[in-house]
User: Fold these one by one.
Assistant:
Number 1:
Amino acid sequence: MASDADVIVVGAGLAGLVATYELTRAGRSVLLVEQENADNLGGQAHWSLGGLFLVDSPEQRRLGVRDSYELALRDWNSSAAFDRPEADHWPRCWAQAYVEFAAGEKRSYLRGLGMRFMPFVGWAERGGGTASSHGNSVPRFHFGWGTGPEIVRVFADRVREAERAGLVRIRYRHRVDELLTSDGVAHGVRGSVLRPSSERRGVASSREVVGEFEHHAQAVVITSGGIGGDQELVRRNWPSWLGRKPERMLTGVPAHVDGRMLDIGERAGASVVNRDRMWHYTEGITNWDPVWPEHGIRILPGPSAVWLDATGERLPAPYFPGFDNMGTLRHILGTGYDYTWFLLDQRILEKEFALSGSEQNPDLTDKSPRKLLSRVRKGAPGPVEAFKRHGVDFVVRDDLRDLVAGMNELTGESLLDPRAVRERVMARDAEIHRPYGKDMQVSAIRAARRFISDRAIRVATPHGLLDSGNGPLIAVRLRLLTRKTLGGLETNLDSQVMRPDGSAFEGLYAAGEVAGFGGGGVHGYNALEGTFLGGCVFSGRSAGRALARDLG
């Protein structure tokens, strides 16, 4: 049968663009099929903050951060907690290879394409409280100048150049429904043409079928993303080790992140592993200006807010803002409620609150030095202030008793006792005002301020919430927020899909979130943050280079 291209790539997100770029730079032809319209080129990566995990970078060294491949690999393996002999075989291999990439060629590879990095480095996922537990031992979260749209652009521009040169054809509104195989070899896709859509990026589009298609190639690369846009699918795969399934969540990715290709790949004979590993956030707030259904935004908090559960109990150590995402999620689910509270004041809001996402950080996304200066001026960043004014999850009052009353009013439940909340806040404030104390969160705040990036732009000067002169008191209701799929199609280090019997699936490759960012779960049970975009780049690059090398 005639081939429509050397390779078919299913999904025009970041991993698909990277694989396509690597194939075309080697002179291979690509047919790129995507179920959404052209405005969605780049997929979920477009919406990201653009953080990238780098190890022993010039940015770290300039800030006095001493990092190494050995330390990063130890942190990765401690966090991943790989414990499945068969299902974790390839993820372990990918973990080592990815950390080598992050400590080696990753930065120069991206810079060679035009990507630039901010001089400050963030310290995400500070961990579970001991040297050998989950978490980053040092700051490794590098901010891409231009956020998610920029990392999409550096690959999309080259894919468009290849399209103009005739090496790439893109078929939008083409939804793959079946992988085509002969004698155990993948050679094409069959699917449905969806009604043309003019919806803007991220908006849920029509699923009306207006036609059919069938295309053939020497190989197929699946880069279709995870399951985070389908809450029912998330619940169906909910990890037993996290406890009960949440009844209510916000959705952190567009509706088209639907996980369809996982089942389609499995029906064709692919191995899918670690379905119960996923990464969802605990600091979600309802988007007051939503793009997709149940659209939630994640707060990227500094360490100073007091974190209370739904009943007013303070979350125990080490479940502080920004420290141990999955441990905190497990604890919250154990309370029997699906929401928690941040208590803070205007001073903390202005210094410590950031919002995840390219659209919530216009200074970084627009690459505007003038806008960036607003982060060191008095006042909250514009998007944060807009959420404080318009967001349904924010309660702002001048008095703590009134604040607690507003919190109870917001939820419709009288779970919070004003006297008990005051006692907890006063106890915390007393620790703030002592040079020494036993409050581990207060110790963490002081430790964070020893890092120059945190002290300059991320962590407020320690002070009591009930001290005067710090602006109104603020409570933020935090919801659980769906985000990343950590398991998926099992792949070897060439991104070739494996079969359940351990053999390679000839002609079939996978990259990005649909492959658990490599191997079917390179993160294990925990991510170190800044690792999702990089996982798409590394696995897409591996697929493209392997096929460019091996195709006839």
Number 2:
Amino acid sequence: MTAGFETLDYVIFVAYAILILGVGLWVSRDKEGHQKNAEDYFLASKSLPWWAIGASLIAANISAEQFIGMSGSGFALGLAIASYEWMAALTLIIVGKYFLPIFIEKGLYTIPEFVEKRFSTNLKTILAVFWLGLYVFVNLTSVLYLGGLAIETIMGVDMMYAIIGLALFAAAYSLYGGLSAVAWTDVIQVVFLVLGGLVTTYLALNTVSGGEGVMAGFSKVWEAAPDKFHMVLEEFNGDGSANANYLDLPGVWVLVGGLWVANLYYWGFNQYIIQRTLAAKSLKESQKGILLAAFLKLVIPLIVVVPGIAAYVMVNDPEIMASLGEVGQLNIPSGEQADKAYPWLLQFLPTGLKGVAFAALAAAIVSSLASMLNSTSTIFTMDIYKQYFNKNANDKKTVNVGRMTAAVALVIAVLVAPLLDGLDQAFQYIQEYTGLVSPGILAVFLLGLFWKKTSNKGAIWGAVLSIPIALALKLLPIYVESFDFLAPWMHQMGLATLLSMVVIAIISNSENKGADDVKGIPLTKELFKTTPLFNIGSFAVMIILAVLYAIFW
């Protein structure tokens, strides 16, 4: 057992890189006699089939923040962090049923474009700037940092060089090919992602059981750390002391409170996620892709959370640690450095499989980077550049500006990413700081979609005031029993959403004097009609979720 890579590992990883770049550039090529236009670059010519949409949704979503960050939270918190994944499955069903029909009917390129059609150009610009800041300074930077941390831990490469390498890899095909290159390579990335993740899970559980297999390992992990298998955390520990983890996942409020804000915002109104559903051949095709993604979300905790829990058991078992030899003493995760759990596990994979697992991690990182870059360029080009700099830009100019925008965003993210060094539980960091922006955006969209009285003035004030409201709730010392500091940030996120909706409702009612807004969306039963396949699949997802929560409550 060696900590570093052997020749076979490098060969496998290089073969993966060549495959991704080759496919990405091949699907990006301009067809004879046809120059790439805006629809080709930003919406993959609206030609994606359901299986490509489902795979691309998961590849865009599962990144270093899940493999590294969520495994780290599994190490620190346990299975409760899987609520993000399992509740996402239900959220996807809601998005497919109620949001997508409206978006696709309006023929959108971007989510801010919907805001312009429903409200105004001014509000579209405000939200576009919100998103650009969030993608560059939170999403891109955190994914690059966590990817760099993984490469540094596993291969010993300096973090800055690792970050630059990942950035160049993602840029190599996504900047040229646009969404088509991103989506089609995502299909391959998901295969690597799932298989590589399952290999790591198998290794971790088999090691815990002393080579007696996965089921024996899972049984031992459950026996050794039963407190790590509760989906709903209690406010107090068994000895009466305060449970510090409650601040990150506040018990039953996870199911009925702020986590809905995070999920509905992320899956329904997040450009780099929703963009691949807008690129579908049809609404039905898009909904089938959503359903596939929902089923995949149910199994994701097996490959991103369980390894973190297994690592916790291994680190706290002297007998297991002794059996790991010198390799086991390298980069050991701890309560203060939980995000080292997944990279630490990868060290124990045998030659060959280490290359496969690392390719899976790279696939997760690169696919998300590519998706974020494409959506950043789409929003800037379609919602800011064409609006304020060149209204008459032709397709060639538009595509070139999109490429330049992605390149600039990537350079900024590369420079900022190393500043996150030393961050613990990065997954929670991403959720917490996204939570400063998401309440206002969610409030604007929910009321804009489903409440005809919502006015432009009300939506603008709700969006603008949502951030100071969120900051006030975050910084003011709200007392919670057993804690002499701030309330769980998930509560703050839920309250910020409700208060933003109140602001929008009061101003809208005042402006329209109780009448429907002229841009209110007419809703009909026919608009939300879904196929029997989608309905049966949705019920299956809900039944599986109910069983999972009943077992692990």
Number 3:
Amino acid sequence: MKKKKVNLRDLNKTSSDTHKRNDAHNQSSAESIVKFKVYVPAIFSFVMLIIGIAMDYFDVAFFKDWIRIVWYAVAYLPVGFPVIKEGWNSIKNGDFFTEFLLMSIATIGAFAIGEYPEGVAVMLFYAVGELFQSAAVKRAKGSIKALLDVRPNEALVYRDNNYVSVNPETVAIGEKVQVRVGEKIPLDGILLSEKGSFNTAALTGESKPDTIAKGEKVFAGSINLDGVIEIKTTKEFKDSSIARILDMVQNATARKSKTELFIRKFAKIYTPIVVFLAIALTFLPYFFVDDYVFSDWLYRALIFLVISCPCALVISIPLGYFGGLGAASKNGILFKGASYLDEMTKVNTVVMDKTGTVTKGVFKIKEIKAIGWKEPEFMKYLMAMEEQSTHPIAKAIMDYKADGEDFQASEVSEVAGKGLKGTVNGKTVLVGNKPLMISNNIEVPSETDNIVESIVMVSIEGKFAGYVIIADELKDDAHEAIKQIRESGISKIIMLSGDKDSITQQVAKEMGIDTAKGGLLPEDKLNEVEKLMSENDGRVAFIGDGINDAPVLAVSDVGIAMGGLGSDVAIETADVIIQTDQPSKIAKAIKIGRSTRRIVYQNIALAFGVKAVVLVLGAVGLATMWEAVFADVGVALLAILNAVRLQKMKW
């Protein structure tokens, strides 16, 4: 009987895959156990509290004196001890007045005056609030953390006539890397294979697969969808687009908004004031009230402490900004910090570059006009000449598809500043601008005088044979972008470009932009933007895409870079990066900023409003510890739920 040959490589791969699945299962089980353990103290305290309250209600005979105290103490410790410990550590570090200290004083004080169930309840609900906060923060960071999952962890590099698996950080520039179907591209590079299809959703927010041709750029973190491909690396891992984006994402939350910074400073002043007011509320009535009872006024002071705990503000405001940053990231918009979410809401003027921002930055044939020749034959003469040139306009012309055999040019020479002269099929051919035609006594039709785009004129055997108009294409969503920016309440939209003024004006007119200036150097753009910023409290957002826009991106109130995956300078300089290269995302960025600010202001109003009412009721003896719990933990929970709404919003 013939034995089937066993492929050791396949066997090892199968074994490896099995181990990976088992490891993933074990890891998932371990994570579930860890998550459950987090909730155990709160569940234990809750069960003990409910049983204790039930025994109090039914007046169980043995549930008296020290047994009752011990029961509630055991219920208190799982949730209370971590808070007391945190408060003690804060005191040791010189930070006396924290919410941990407030909660510790209030609950221990409740035990001191015999209000055991309320002391446990306050700390239990505080612990539950912290758990809710932790879960909400994780959810708000979900879209941001999703980027961390696209960090490639291995690269198959061609070394010593074989592909070996190594850490991407050890791969040098210029090495050849193989990427299999379903794997992540480990480093930025150029595609060596004929073509490839890639999922770039984690990088750009764009769900549609991106098809790349041989010689074009591919970016680390993209997922290969179709066949085994090879790339040549162009950057080290630390300089790759994904590494830079990850670094910015991780640092974004460290850049606080002014609102967030104010609340944190406010809490540091507010907390000691509250502690001293609570002390005053306990002892001062002794001098003014005839029937002063220490335990009654201490109880009021403890209620006052619980109500005034600033955790609802300290938790919900950063959480609101987390939500905004996460929602933006999910939509392919990267804010470099919470402060820029705030700045985006104040913008009243949008200034944009033209090439690469609202246009694709790639020359395409817009119109072909052949005079006395059939179009395909005319184009073959032109293409034979332009094949000798490396100019971007020549590349656009060479993209034309003509049936039949190509023509060959000979004796091609360049006429400085004017074009090319050569021979095709034995005929003298001139290709270039109007001065080239005039200098060779070629009569040019007057209709060409009104064409503002780049025009390539052709003469064959001393006669004008036609022309081709070359233009930069508008991006697919360019018109929609202007419409949405106007709908978001911004009426002042300006275009500044280094391209010819006539072309800039035509593009601006086509897009419905009222003001445009062309022929500008980088310093001219800078002067124009600075002038706008100084006029009538102007808050300017500038949108650009490259090195020449870097000075303006840096000086504007909000610098927005288009196509952040490809432009290193834009990534370094801008405050906001539109990762999908779509100008329509600008309006979305403004809307996300406004939604975030609205949520944050709602949370501030909710926290202050409820606390003010219950503080007054507590001071005059009309509120119990249960109302205090709602005013603190309840408000914090409501604020957290409100902030989480940002993850569900559509813009």
Number 4:
Amino acid sequence: MAAGDLVLTGLMAVLLVGVIALLTRIENWRSYTPLAGGGTATGEDAVVLNREKPAGLIRWLTTVDHKDIGLLYGLYGIIAFAVGGIMAVLIRVQLITPGGAILGANAYNSILTSHGITMLFLFGTPIIAAFANYFIPLLIGADDMAFPRINAIAFWLLPPAALLIWAGFFLAPVTQNMIEPAQTAWTMYTPLSVEQANPGVDLMLLGLHLSGVAATMGAINFIVTVFTERGEDVTWANLDIFSWTIAAQSGLILFSFPLLGSALVMLLLDRNLGTTFFAVEGGGPLLWQHLFWFFGHPEVYILVLPPMGLVSLILPKFSGRKLFGFKFVVYSTLAIGVLSFGVWAHHMFSTGMDPRLRASFMAVSIAISIPSAVKTFNWITTMWNGRLRLATPMLFCIGFVSNFIIGGVTGVFLAAIPVDLVLHDTYYVVGHFHYIVMGALGFGFFAGVYYWFPVFTGRMYQRTLGKAHFWLSILGTNLTFFAMLALGYLGMPRRYATYQFDGAIAPLAQVSTFHLLATAGAFILLVGQLIFVWNLLQSWLEGPKVEDGDPWNLERDGMLDKEWTWFDRKLETAVTDGGEDAEQSTLTDGGEPKSDD
């Protein structure tokens, strides 16, 4: 182990111990925290519990309010989304020409690695935690999360995790390229990730480990909150679908992220202490793939189950009907959670594993499509003969369903061994995966932002900009990732910085054409997200104020959930306490008065 790595590891250990020691000495952990279960405080606790929140930056650095922490998660996730999106645009610009347009091979590999890790670990999981932190207590009638301090700690572990993951980009110029960004790809396959002599890889692994600890702490908190903090009128039978999916997702995190953490520690030991967990003479390079994908495929459902819950919650509101087959949606959620741990080796069909094992994994991989199809039919049936209102949240829900169908069907092909052996490690896999991650996770996230925007801000967004964001996003998503599916059928390998194959795989002009289409789609997506950020910021600051606690006119169909009841009480309290009367009338999808249309 190099002396520099020893010093770095030692400093990290000292820093973490210092943070833990500091947290244990902070004032009474119940400060600013309501008593669980709605009890009343007495004596000294009553004074502490009734204090006002501090103002300014101190509030955000010390808060344990679940709503504030939800907003912090949201800001963090949007920043990570922007960083990962810029990396994606750089990747697509590089592939405009067969020889590479702007990046060298090392720079391309660095950006490719960081893009995947950023989107999955720094955007995907935290942005879900943003919605869950803000709304789970409101939806289930709880005062706060079960462990407010742990909730805050889980968030504040994420910024240093991001800095460690991105550290190579900042340190490379300072250290004369002695520390560079990791170039292992996001899957970190051995032996490449062991033999790459670059301290930036160690920093990235430590950052991943830190993000995993944060996710695990959050998952425990969500499980305990949903199980023990529900209001007296909230039973398992009438628990909302979003809370069901968060509980299922948290269970997946609890069983998968610790395994990833253990694998990362073994990888760090192989890199720095000469152990042989993943060496040929030890556990073997394939051991990493088994450990990683046992986490990696549940991770796909960790990312997509909560957006499924968001769509299952929001889509009925704009269909004028209750969610069709609610119990079956819940059962399919639990089935996906269980089956997701039995499909990991379909990522390894081409490794030469025993054909009998391959067949069993193929069967389970195809079987997991059944509960996913159940959800899809339930969403479509909910809309069937419904009174559809095509507000921006509803448009993103419909976009989610269409993208999820394409992503799911292409996944069934990859689950079939003969097809996978042909398409493995081609752009077909990239297209399939991004239809799920961007086409499903991204669209579910946008639907949730627009639907709950009045609750977050007390204002309404601009309707025209919201719908422009949707149409640019749906066009860009399908143009980019459908072109990638075509590239996969042409045999274009993934992760290549150039594609000068001279016709060995497919006619070069044909490959170039689909790369151009994918790049054009990426720029359309970029424009859509710029509109989203502008709409978010401008409407938050200057959007028309919402006066009514039912801005979507949900009470008409008997679908007003607890968070809107809470929001209505908040508005009434603001007026009672002398808040300013809003000058605008109650608005719905960005500027039109509420109506039955």
